[in-house]
Backbone:
């Protein structure tokens, strides 16, 4: 570990926030994947498996909500750049005690799409909670994180396997 102080890219030397200028960067293909979980009760998981959640198709609604959210990231995060979201895949699956969510976002632009991937997966998780809260209010969003990014100046990165 370096003894140099951590420099956050969105902060000036005096500590004030600013939007990083990316006009001099060359557009390149970039991709990021984020995952999250929505922990649910046995009752909710059964309703999801049986398709009996009163509000309808939870996974379809969450998928569309996440994709829409990826495109709206700069509206939610004040220092995020408005970039072209050229692709967004959002997958949801049912595990024993949770809904597993994964979002992969792609662009050919001047900055990465990590925040778009995280926004997609967390808003999709919020949609799941919204859809199931009438059945059981105990649903919890957990473990939202970037698992992979590629492209750009810093190249490829993959989160180490968790034990």
Residues:
């Amino acid at each position: 570990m370096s003894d140099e102080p951590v420099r956050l890219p969105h902060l000036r030397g005096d500590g004030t926030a600013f939007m990083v200028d990316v006009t001099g960067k060359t557009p390149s293909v970039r991709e990021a994947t984020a995952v999250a979980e929505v922990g649910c009760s046995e009752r909710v998981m059964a309703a999801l498996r049986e398709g009996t959640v009163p509000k309808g198709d939870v996974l379809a609604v969450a998928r569309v909500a996440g994709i829409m959210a990826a495109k709206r990231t700069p509206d939610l995060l004040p220092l995020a750049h408005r970039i072209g979201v050229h692709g967004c895949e959002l997958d949801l699956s049912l595990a024993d005690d949770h809904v597993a969510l994964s979002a992969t976002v792609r662009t050919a632009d001047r900055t990465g799409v990590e925040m778009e991937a995280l926004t997609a997966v967390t808003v999709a998780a919020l949609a799941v909670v919204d859809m199931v809260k009438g059945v059981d209010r105990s649903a919890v969003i957990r473990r939202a994180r970037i698992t992979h990014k590629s492209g750009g100046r810093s190249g490829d990165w993959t989160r180490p396997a968790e034990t």
Notes: The two ends are 22 Å apart (CA to CA). Helices lie at 42-50, 58-71, 73-76, 114-132. The longest helix spans residues 114-132.
